[in-house]
Amino acid sequence: MVDTFKRGFNHLITYPVFFVPPLIPALVSYLVSFILIASALTAIHGGKGVLLAAILLILGITINLVVQLVVSAMLIHMAQTAEEGYAPGLGDSLQASLDRLGDIVVASLIVSVAVGIGLIFLVLPGLALAFFFIFTLQEVIVGNKSALEAVKGSFEIVKSDFGNTLGFFIILVIIIVAIAGILGLVPIVGSFVAQLIIAPYYSIVITIYYLKQVRPHQSQKRIILEG
């Protein structure tokens, strides 16, 4: 398990390209906010009403969420590429994300709704569901599964090795909190730098752990089929 966390940092150091995707949501958010706010103000002053402004606001939020999902998928694909011994590329990872965008969005909606309901009624079940669904995007991107299959697959992976996965996740959270806490002490740029590190590191480490969980099962299936 310790090797997983070390490999995460090694990939970040070896391939600085991992720091690029986290910049995309910030840039897109800034551009979308500027364009849509200007359009909304123009609509209101032009007498077209608040409804159009609300629609533009919803559109902006939707665009930002989709971009976040695409970036998350890119980081997962890049992590898989690095684990396979190749240098990850932005173009290939972006294409891989866009190719599976439908399943990425649907799977994320399923998880968000399930976790949201759990958090609304009873906080603990919501947190538990979020934990069981942590490998959903890995199942879509790496496992090449449909949205529903990915959600089910993540649940089965966690359930099959609950103790080790829980321990792994707790350590990962501690590392992330430590990074955020230490860099947060740096004035002005500390929090921004922390996000540039945390986002790719989280995706890399989760993907490495996922691959370690899935590959033995894939090998067993091949042995059974060949036998």
When the domains are counted, the total is 1
Note the gap between the termini. 31 Å
Q: Biggest β-sheet: count, sense, barrel?
A: none
Structural class: mainly alpha
Strand content: under 5%
* Rg from Cα: 20 Å
Shape annotation: globular
Strand count = 0
Could you explain the architecture of this structure?
With 227 residues, the chain is mainly alpha-helical. The chain is 84% helix and 0% strand. It starts with a helix and ends with a helix. Helix 3 (50-83) packs across helix 5. The chain has helices at residues 2-14, 23-45, 50-83, 90-99, 101-121, 123-132, 136-141, 147-160, 162-183, 190-226. The protein has 10 helices and no strands. It has one domain (2-226). The radius of gyration is 20 Å and the shape is globular.
Write the layout of secondary structure elements.
Blueprint: H1 2-14, H2 23-45, H3 50-83, H4 90-99, H5 101-121, H6 123-132, H7 136-141, H8 147-160, H9 162-183, H10 190-226
Helix pairs in contact: 1-10, 2-3, 3-4, 3-5, 3-10, 5-6, 5-8, 9-10
Structural descriptors:
227 residues, globular, 0% strand, mainly alpha
Give a brief outline of the structure.
This protein has 227 residues and is mainly alpha-helical.
